[in-house]
Amino acid sequence: MNENNRNLTRVDERYRYFLQIQVCIPLLLLGVVLFVFWLWVPRIPDAFSLYGGAAVLLLLVIGVFIWAPRRSRVTAYYVEDDLIGFIVGALWHKEVVVPFNRLQHLELQQGPTERLLGLSRLVLYTAGGTGADLAIPGLRTETAEQIRDQVLGIVRSEVLEDEAITQANDASEARHD
Amino acid sequence: MTEPVEAPLEEWQQRWHRLPLVALIFFFLKSVHQLAKQLYQAIPALAGVFIFARDFRDAWPWFAVGILVVFVLAVVLQYLRFTYQVNDQRVQMKQGVFKRTELALDYERIQQADLQIPWYLRWVGRYVVRLESAGAKGQEVILVGLTQPQAELLQQRVQLRGNQATSPQTHTNANSVAQPNTEEGAADFSFTIGKNEVWKIGLIQNPFIAVGLVLAFLVSNERIRNASESALVGFVERFPSKTLALVVLVGGAFLLMALFIAAAIGFAWNKYYGYQLTRNDQRYSYRAGFASPLQRSFSLRKLQTIKIKQGIIARLMHRVTIELAQAGGMAQRQERFLIPILTEQQRQRFVADLGVPSSETTWHRSHKWWISHWLLITFVVPTLIFDWRVGVGATVLVFVLRVLSWRKRGWLINEQWFATRSGVFGFTERWLPISKMQSISWAQGPLQRRLNIASVVVCSAAGHFYVVDIPVQQARQLQQRIIQETASCRRLWM
Prior knowledge:
The structure holds two protein chains of two kinds. By secondary structure, chain A is of the alpha+beta class. Chain A folds into two domains: 3-73; 77-156, PH-domain like (Roll), CATH 2.30.29.30. Chain A has four helices and seven strands. Chain A has helices spanning 15-40, 46-73, 112-117, 141-156; strands spanning 9-10, 76-79, 83-88, 93-99, 103-109, 119-126, 134-140. In chain A, helix 1 runs antiparallel to helix 2 (46-73). Chain A is elongated. Chain A starts with 8 loop residues before the first strand and ends in a 21-residue tail after the last helix. By secondary structure, chain B is an alpha+beta fold. Chain B has three domains: 9-178, no CATH class; 201-272, no CATH class; 303-366 and 409-487, no CATH class. In chain B, 44% of the residues lie in helices and 24% in strands. Chain B contains 15 helices and 20 strands. The longest helix of chain B is centred in the middle third of the chain and has 31 residues, at 242-272. In chain B, 32% of the residues are buried. Residues 1-5 and 165-184 of chain B have low confidence and may be disordered. Chains A and B meet through strand 4 of A and strand 8, helix 11, strand 18 and helix 15 of B.
């Protein structure tokens, strides 16, 4: 990882609860379905429902007590003078960097669970790619707004030169017919 | 009807206009094209209607007439509802019969400008002007039936605005902006595709793939396969001997293939006949085309990536194709800025003109672990579906292809450019000006960590560059170098 020379900030602690809720919702729904099968649908063998239920429970325990806390611990970001970066993953590491001078626009997003926890996610878009290039989840809403304002300030104060990056080589021997 | 034919250019720019009447041909052809596409998709539904609606079957001429009337009406309405205005900042247009859309396109946002005299407008000598802006949606304005002065005025505007940002420090003589029409002698760079090269373009664009697709279609679906098989058997039985039938069949197949290839060659010949590329200051433009001569121009300032491609046939002929890619949806782009055929020497000259150092050819390789991707799944899936022997066969085949592909893969970074190369039999090289990068990501899985390798994905406005399974240290250096170059860059990327 690249933490050595970056000033990493971990996302808010409540991001763990968000992840736990995110894990729970589909698994609990699945559990309910299996429970209904076990009680009222005789055609489906009980073993299926019971083993399925056990698997769901196992996944739930792993998700809530192991994955979510760990994932929230390894989700971090850094804001520097001219770029913003995001690091995530315990086993599969990923780091995404967007320089401010390539930023097209940015958004703050908040789902119902996030609103409940007072969290927001900062989503950044560049011209490279169809969707969002970088999304930093689990930010306290005030922090997210503060980062947004900071980034907008930097982008606004950016001064561009007239010169373009790509220019033709003016080699005289290029003349030809 | 506002026919801007005789109107002086000044007056032409002040009002909203309708396109001249000849533009009806364009709308008609466009609608036919769309209808054909929709009908093709609606064939099953139509067949169903035809079979079940027995009582109405006899009335089909009436339906046909009805559809024709609606079609013609739609074309005329489309034409009538299309208006445009040109001023010295932008082009605006309004179109749509029920759903109205209005579009304003600033000249400086235009990436590519096309001037074409299509075959159906040659008899009146009118132009089609196609202006395309950046962005994933790639908005475009198509103005049909403009006179030569009108078309050239528009082109001039685009060139003037497009170059504005770059003009101060460049060597340009001010005239080349004011009088953009390329004169051979005045061009800063020029390149022509000779008569004995044009016919090769169709060949290197791999017409064999099209032949393969037709064959694949014939054997793809059971009903078509059975029909073609029984037709074949019936055909063979008509001959006195099997040998003769075989000779005729093989001869016929060769003839068909030759026809197909000839068609591909003819198509490309028509499109690229008389190809001539020139650069005036920072703007490249090319003229080409036999039936519908086209002039396409593009400001180097807007260049995002350079793609150099060599297919298997091009490799045998020692030729390459180069595409100058711009920002926005790569997949659906039809109208590319293409140099369809270059010899090795021409390629070096052109690439040098673009500012890419041609001497730099030390490609870094991926780790050998890269070869093993997908091998497990190519064994498991066929084994589950067919047999373990099929699985082994598929795995060996994929392994060989992966090894070939690994040998071609590479990446490099020099002072200004980052490039990747891939391919199996041919190759594709893609070059990105380092500081035109949009975002960059770095990834490492558990296995990669054990092998001390990582992957980097560099996103540009014209597609992603994947550098997979390279040593961690190289990956870090690459990432940091690109970030540093881009973040500190204050020059225009677009």
